[in-house]
Amino acid sequence: MTDSIIEKKNSYAERPVVLKAQHVSKYFKLPTEQATGLKQAFINWTKGIKGYKRQDVLKDINFEVHQGEFFGIVGRNGGGKSTLLKLISQIYYPENGSIEVSGKLVPFIELGVGFNPELTGRENIYLNGSLLGFSKEEVDDMYDDIVEFAELEEFMDQKLKNYSSGMQVRLAFSVAIKAQGDILVLDEVLAVGDEAFQRKCDDFFTEIKKDPSKTVVLVTHDMNSVKRYCTRAMMISHGEVIAIGDPESVSEQYTMENLRAEKRATERQRAENGGYPNGLNEKCPILRTTAVSSPLLTSNESFKFEVEYQYDEPGDFYLAIAVHDLRRGGITYDTGSKTFKMNQHGHHTVQFELPLNLFNNGEFRIYTSLRTPSATNPHATDAVGVAIDDRACDFAIRDKRNRDFALLSDRALTITPVDADAVTVE
User: Fold this and answer.
1) CATH number of the domain that residue 379 is part of
2) Is residue 166 domain-shared with residue 309, that is, in the same domain?
3) Cβ–Cβ < 8 Å for 390, 267
């Protein structure tokens, strides 16, 4: 593991280890040249053409999961998370290293895998149970709980192909989480079904955290789920373990990795396009918004940023600044098009400060536009250039006092009852 890995002591450390990965590596051979017959294969061999390139998906992975833990695995797409889950579930086998599992492991990697649309719901439960390694007697014992949780009692003797997609999801998910295994392996499945079923799943995961005999391994991109359910988390990037520790720390590192990756992607796009960056032109060749303070802050802090611009044309011009909510959508705040009248033409940099005490947790992006007075409307301005893509500026708020759902914090806005005798505020 690298020096950047975070590992904090946790209350589960004294419990037995039920899942252990030691120096696990996995690669795939990706075809680069197809041999259509023995003759072509022989020719390729004599020329030293392998016909494939090696893709290293996982590199020297090491971690332990203790009994009773709710262990989260996070990382960007392509980082190796799903491959690791398939190794844990023994769908794949590692090239190097070993994975040891103690207890009955129930994988739930893809919805509906192992289901047959020509069989009834009842038959599919027994089929899926047998694929998970349960005997008929064991499935008999679990059957009522599965059907009750899925809320499909009336449909169990209908063929699965007649189920709606939502009903199929509920049945498949119910088989996985109600199977009486010791270790439950889940891949991005906390948002299945309708709202009522999601609430039921939420209650289930809240209860399973209290069961010291049940262990859950969850792969997800949802940091709210990691912080809500997980007792520990691990982050994988480019096939390597970057961090292991408390969910809050790992979630913050994942957020920062996302922000850096978005910047790199837009920089590549700009290099490919050539000429002026997207949104800029000859009149406004430079317009960039850059973080001065850390992009990860609490609500007590202010986010400091600077705007670099170049404008050599005569006449008045302005900077307009808008804050967009990346998670919830919409414009969080807009300064207006004539708030900041600039006094210096040419190439300059000006610094701004944004207080964050009103906001709940979230991820935000600042867009800046350079504007000139409108020729047709004296109260309006026209955009000359806009700082977007890698020239926009991202920041995130993480504060334990905040909530995640709404934009405004309770310190910014609180609804109070007029009739205090009729309402109890908790």
Assistant:
1) 2.60.40.2550
2) no
3) yes
Number of structural domains (the chain) is 2
Residues 393 and 263: their CA atoms lie apart, in Å, by 9
216 and 331 co-located in one domain: no
Decide if 159 contacts 123 (C-beta within 8 A).
no
Kindly report the pTM of this predicted structure. 0.61
User: Are residues 313 and 192 both part of a single domain?
Assistant: no
Report helix angle 136-150 to 165-178, nearest 10. Answer: 130
Cβ within 8 Å of residue 260, ≥6 positions away: none
* Phi, then psi, of 6 in degrees rounded to 5: -100, 125
And the tokens for 112?
């509906």
H/E segment holding residue 371: strand 362-373
Domain-embedded: residue 5: no
CB 67: neighbour CB atoms within 10 A?
Answer: 18
Give the bridge partners for 408, in sequence order.
Answer: 359
Nearest-angstrom CA–CA distance, 196 and 58: 38
Q: Is residue 404 a part of any domain in this protein?
A: no
Task: State the Cα–Cα distance between residues 49 and 55, nearest whole angstrom.
Answer: 17
Q: What is the pLDDT of residues 334-365, one digit of tens each?
A: 998 888 999 999 999 999 999 999 999 999 99
